[in-house]
């Protein structure tokens, strides 16, 4: 634990003070410690403590927090949820980038267009979702269904 905190402090020392404020600094230390404990299986915690998420909510540098606290490969919503991203990342553009990264990683992991459907539809990227369905031989019937115009009164 001490090693994770020391590594985080050294890394944050290199970042300019204008990129991160005190609440953000406190959140990053807690997030890095949580991630270290999860990787080393030293914790039975499922998520970051609410007090730590509150530091991120009060930070004025949420875009920097997203870049510094989120893992390079976001593999599932559980990873984001454990860090409380849905509560503190309030910039629509930043959230869109994170969700796109999540959707791409999930598709590469499962190769299932239906597994990433909620993410692409929430991002209003129906055409990307349809392209993924079309590329799969097994899901041609799903493609023909989702290709319909659901704003039509027939549906």
From TrEMBL:
InterPro entries: DmX-like/RAVE_component, Rav1p_C. GO terms for cellular component: RAVE complex. Residues 2-155 form the RAVE complex protein Rav1 C-terminal domain. GO terms for biological process: vacuolar acidification. Coiled coil: none annotated. PANTHER family: RABCONNECTIN-3A, RABCONNECTIN-RELATED. This is RAVE complex protein Rav1 C-terminal domain-containing protein. The lineage of its organism: Eukaryota, Viridiplantae, Streptophyta, Embryophyta, Tracheophyta.
């Amino acid at each position: 634990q001490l090693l994770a905190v020391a590594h985080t402090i050294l890394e944050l020392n290199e970042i300019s003070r204008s990129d991160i404020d005190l609440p953000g600094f406190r959140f990053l230390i807690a997030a890095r410690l949580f991630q270290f404990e999860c990787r080393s299986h030293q914790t039975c915690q499922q998520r970051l403590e609410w007090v730590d998420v509150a530091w991120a909510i009060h930070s004025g540098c949420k875009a920097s927090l997203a870049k510094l606290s989120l893992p390079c490969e976001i593999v599932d919503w559980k990873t984001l949820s454990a860090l409380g991203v849905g509560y503190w990342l309030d910039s629509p553009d930043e959230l869109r980038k994170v969700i796109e990264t999540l959707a791409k990683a999930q598709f590469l992991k499962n190769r299932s267009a239906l597994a990433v459907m909620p993410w692409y539809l929430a991002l209003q990227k129906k055409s990307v979702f349809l392209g993924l369905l079309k590329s799969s031989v097994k899901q041609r019937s799903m493609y023909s269904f989702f290709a319909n115009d659901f704003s039509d009164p027939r549906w």
